[in-house]
Fold this protein.
Amino acid sequence: MSRKLITIPLEQLSTEGNIRSVSTDLRSLAQSFRDGEPEQPPLVQPNGNGYYQVIFGGRRVDAARLLGTAAMACLVVEPMDRRTQITLQLVENLHREDLSPLDEARAIQDLLELGASQLEIANMMQRSQSYICQRLALLNLSPNAQDALAAGTLSASVAEEIMRLPHAQQDRVLGHVQGATVKQAQQIVTQDDTKRTLAKPAPVTEDVDEYDALLDEGDDPLLVLALAQLREAEELVKEVYRDFKLSGSTGHIRRMLIGWKANQVIY
């Protein structure tokens, strides 16, 4: 990749398209500049009509703007496609270890949409494929939870505990899990799950009374939740099985039900 060092007016530099969504701590970065210039020039590519897109060094450009700098030295490279650009940005930020989990997740999603596979991205990032999946799952967070993650009040590890919940439930527990440990978050999610399940209208009132009694006796809320969910599954299997009997089906799904020993809960 050939590079040419030239001085470019800041008004001709664009940081649009950078995988980093927020530039933080610009003042301290600006104070590290020597004679108004960063130690390492930003890497840019021509955008047409005399303008340039910043590939590396978006924070350096923003810090220079904070200082009121009119122009700065930049390394100019030949235009590259979007996939190559995101890949380079992702690798560079990972080496510096200052890319937010959410920005990382969005960059991975962009690469997938541009044709890269999860395995290719994992190899490029020197991470496991499960790590890639965990990062992508952060995009399933509710907007409020994503804001908390971006602000740093919600850790990525705790976010992974609540992202399996519906958005409304994520928002309900969000205030309780911010600043919590993973174990504390798991307990909060389990307690909220139990309350949500027991709050559902039940066909038999005695079932709810039974769950309340079990909780009052000190049973583990997770086991009480499991019992409630098993009862729901039992009713579902009965309903599905009745439909098969009415339709006279003896197909693959019925054989699967029998294979799962569904007959144990069919009367």
